[in-house]
Specification:
The structure holds 2 protein chains of 2 kinds.
Chain A lengths: L2 E4 L1 H9 L3 H11 L3 E5 H25 L2 H12 L9 H13 L5 H8 L5 H23 L6 E3 L11 E3 L2 E3 L14 H5 L2 H12 L5 H15 L7 H7 L1 H7 L4 E4 L3 H10 L3 E3 L2
Parallel strand pairs in A: 1-2, 1-6, 2-3, 6-7
Antiparallel strand pairs in A: 4-5
Chain B lengths: L47 H14 L3 H4 L8 H25 L3 H19 L6 H17 L6 H16 L5 H13 L7 H8 L6
Helix pairs in contact in B: 3-4, 3-6, 4-5, 5-7
Classes of the chains: A alpha/beta, B mainly alpha.
């Protein structure tokens, strides 16, 4: 029986990128007899891609203007934000949005006023689309795969709600009483952690690799130190490589980073 | 038979509601001081509890503001316009379906073109609510996604269904609207603006 262990990037593609990317992700999941979605993927999905959409939605709500939101988007392309839409994509969106505007809109401005201006119409069309994308994605997260596994006792997975027209994600981080619920399991297998640490050392120096290596090193060397939510987040790919069942493959679009870690512990990571 | 209404039946047994001398001030009200609330006592009705009971009974018969006006926008200009446009749209989609049934693709396409062109105006009525706006936006996006292709029979039927739903429930909730997006997607229609989807998909996979 073939099994897939679904990583965050595939979950995000399937739920948030309608069109070719969603289809590719969904059909990859369907190719397996069993698909397993770890709650760690849901946690990363909410704190990552979903929060980026919520940010975009919030800008449309608070500015009430497509032009002003576009200006904010342009800033993200040059900022140290955790996410970025590149300038070329923003320009393409701006051009397409303008091209697609309704020819009848000018007549409607006379009749309906500001509601019918291109700026207001685009703002509301994108706002409504993003709201719907976010809410539907969150609603469907647990029905995408045949099973949801590896529940995290310290992660509340609060519902996404609308409050004062904005989308409220609630807690996106874990709230452990003592320490991260994954800590004990990881601490009990230092040899496996060392294998992953060696694999990271052979990878190009990247900020995320440095942080991940540091956390793995800390768990091995300082077993009495509590594992914090921040450290848990830095572990990222290492969590998938470690917790993926031996008879499953990790399904990820981020195989260049994940594969070395997975192979180090005798597992496979493949792209959809 | 008692009906649910806020019209209070006139009771012949009622004495005048204003007791004699009620107009005369009972206490002096200084400037800037709030006048104490006046109490109304029915002549011959010494039982205060009975009055309270009667008041509660009347309260329960009275329609609330929310029951009378289910949405703030009810019968606003937008509501009236939306109902008119939706009526037109429903007729056009029905004509298109009839034309398809008699294999007249040209007429079907012409009717769908008319439907497509009334949607921007329908979107101007989005003050009716985000559920309404979401569905009109999804129909606009569905047409844009077809890029000039005539919708197939299933797609026409689904669009017609959405229009009828909007006509029946223009103040529908966003979650009710989201359910319809599933239905639109199930017949191969894209309910989101294509350029927005292209843009969102361009984001790099990051944590």
């Amino acid at each position: 029986m073939s099994k897939a262990y679904v990583e965050t990037t595939v979950l995000a593609d399937a739920l948030l990128k309608p069109g070719a990317r969603a289809e590719a992700a969904k059909s990859a999941i369907r190719r397996y007899d069993e698909s397993l979605l770890p709650v760690y993927s849901i946690k990363e999905f909410k704190a990552g891609p979903l929060s980026h959409y919520v940010w975009f939605h919030g800008k449309l709500v608070t500015t009430g203007s497509w032009e002003q939101t576009l200006a904010q988007l342009r800033k993200t392309a040059m900022s140290p934000f955790r996410f970025r839409w590149v300038s070329t994509a923003i320009e393409a969106l701006e051009a397409a949005a303008h091209k697609n505007r309704s020819k009848t809109l000018e007549d409607l401005v006379t009749k309906y006023g500001a509601t019918a201006t291109e700026d207001a119409v685009l703002c509301d069309r994108y706002r409504l689309s993003l709201r719907s994308l976010v809410m539907r994605a969150w609603k469907r997260r647990r029905s995408l795969t045949s099973a949801v596994v590896d529940e995290l006792s310290c992660y509340p997975e609060n519902d996404v709600v609308e409050k004062r027209r904005l989308i409220d994600l609630g807690d996106v981080e874990c709230c452990p009483k003592d320490e991260c619920c994954l800590a004990a399991e990881l601490r009990g297998h230092p040899a496996t952690l060392r294998l992953m640490l060696n694999a990271i050392a052979a990878q190009p120096a990247k900020e995320e690799n440095t942080k991940r290596a540091q956390v793995l090193r800390d768990i091995i060397r300082l077993p009495n130190q509590k594992l914090t939510p921040k450290q848990c987040r830095y572990l990222g790919d290492a969590v998938f490589a470690y917790f993926c069942p031996a008879d499953a493959v990790i399904l990820s679009t981020n195989v260049s980073d994940l594969r070395p870690l997975a192979e180090a512990v005798g597992k496979k990571a493949i792209a959809p | 038979m008692a009906t649910l209404t806020n019209i209070i039946e006139f009771s012949r047994s009622y004495e005048p509601r204003t007791p004699v001398g009620a107009d005369a001030p009972t206490a002096t009200v200084e400037a800037g001081e709030r006048k104490p609330p006046e109490t109304v006592t029915l002549a011959g009705d010494g039982d205060g509890a009975r009055l309270t009971e009667r008041n509660q009974e009347l309260q329960s018969l009275r329609l609330t503001q929310k029951e009378l006006y289910p949405a703030q926008q009810a019968f606003s200009t937008e509501h009236v316009t939306a109902l008119r446009l939706l009526g037109e749209g429903i007729v056009e989609s029905k004509r298109a379906l009839d034309a398809i049934a008699s294999r007249d693709v040209l007429i079907a396409d012409l009717e769908m073109q008319k439907l497509q062109m009334l949607l921007p105006e329908l979107f101007c009525c989005r003050a009716l609510g985000d559920g309404f706006g979401t569905l009109v936006n999804s129909l606009m996006s569905a047409f844009e996604g077809l890029a000039g292709e005539t919708p197939n029979t299933d797609q026409m039927r689904m669009m017609s269904r959405v229009l009828r739903l909007l006509s029946d429930k223009p103040f529908l909730s966003t979650s009710e609207a989201d359910e319809q997006l599933d239905a639109l997607e199930s017949v191969g229609l894209n309910p989101y603006p294509a350029e927005l989807m292209d843009f969102l998909s361009s984001e790099q996979s990051v944590r």
